[in-house]
Amino acid sequence: MKQVVIFFALLFLIPSTLIAQTVFMIRIDGSINPVSADFIHHSISKARAEKATCLVIYLNTPGGLLESTRNIVHDLLESPLPVVVYVAPGGAHAGSAGVFVTMAAHIAAMAPGTNIGAAHPVGLQAMDTVMSEKATNDAAAFIRSIASQRSRNLEWAEQSVRKSLSITENEALAKKVIDLVATNQQELLGRIDGRSVKTSAGIRVLHTKDAKITTLRMDATERILSLLTDPNIIYITLLLGFYGILFELYNPGAILPGIVGVIALVVAFYAMQALPVNYAGLALIIFAIVLFVLEIKIVSHGMLTIGGIISLLLGSLMLVHADSAWQSVRISLSVIIAAVTVTTLFFLFIIGAGLRAQRAKPATGMEAMMGETGEALDELDPSGNIMVHGEIWKAESVEGQIAQGEKIRVIAVKNFKLIVGHLVA
After folding, report:
1. pLDDT tens column, 64-78
2. Which of 359, 383, 400 is the last residue of a domain?
3. In what order do the strands lie in the sheet with 166-168?
4. What is the DSSP letter of 362?
5. Which of 7, 69, 262, 334 is paired with 236 by a 20 to 30 Å CA distance?
6. Structural domain tally of the chain?
7. Shared-domain flag, residues 91 and 212
């Protein structure tokens, strides 16, 4: 009994540093958007709940949305759990918004063959001088605040915004933009072991050398939404949805186009939650579709088509907010031009041909006899036989007596009998 008491007493006296630690690890490979911001937020909460020693974020990004970047920076600056941002693997880069995320980390590291920088605000559409200067000053103040809190190179941070400076991992280390360069994960965890970092909950000492690695991944919904947050994919999916539904409306019973159209629209509207969508732009796109449909039904001598093209083009350019990103979160101009061209041809030729076919005179059956000419085989007074296209038909005259051999024209069909009148020369 005495030995058991001693054992438990010693167990409680063992320093917590000797107990196996856990490091949580996630990857952000792509643009900074609401999906990646939520993933980082939830990962910090999960790692903290599991009492991990730190969270390591593998980062490789060209940039992203301003609001999402601010949310990530807020989570990193206020995190009670140490967060390590590791720009890796070789060839990766922390561009634009990625600079802010990297500098906000408690420990910033890079792998050989990586780079960081070019954080100048990039509007999705041309800004005037005043607006551009405002965006630049705001971003510069933001990154100075981050650099000040993390004791990083404040001068370089501001120049990366104002002059789009970009540097390699070794230059970043020499300029004190990052804390270390590590070849791989094992070296990284070995190099940061024993370091003390200041978090929102106080000083934390990292114990990472022999830590267990737990990798967190996005769930299925997050992965799908992350894939769909590409503005080009959202834009194409939105147009496909409109095409499918309209094709079904003009060809009832086709079924498949309607199903595909509804699914595409639901997916597009769901994915739009992850982007700063300008609903004025969306309204212009819908208005353009309406104009194309009216062009098919109304003779406007091309005015409706021209209006539809202009509306679709403007709506496509406006679909994503113009001042909401630092780096190329936009619909490609080539995609827009291709979509406008295809949409115009789609409505003018495909849908137009379908409607013309619906309005065309039937080519078979008794209805096809409407307007045809022939000859009276008998005297029609008012009924008798006629010859039309080499076929003998029962006929009835509605214009008085028609003599045998006289030319006639079919003006109606009634109960399998042709209603005819005199052929007017």
Report:
1. 888 889 999 999 999
2. 359
3. 93-95, 115-117, 166-168
4. P
5. 69
6. 3
7. yes
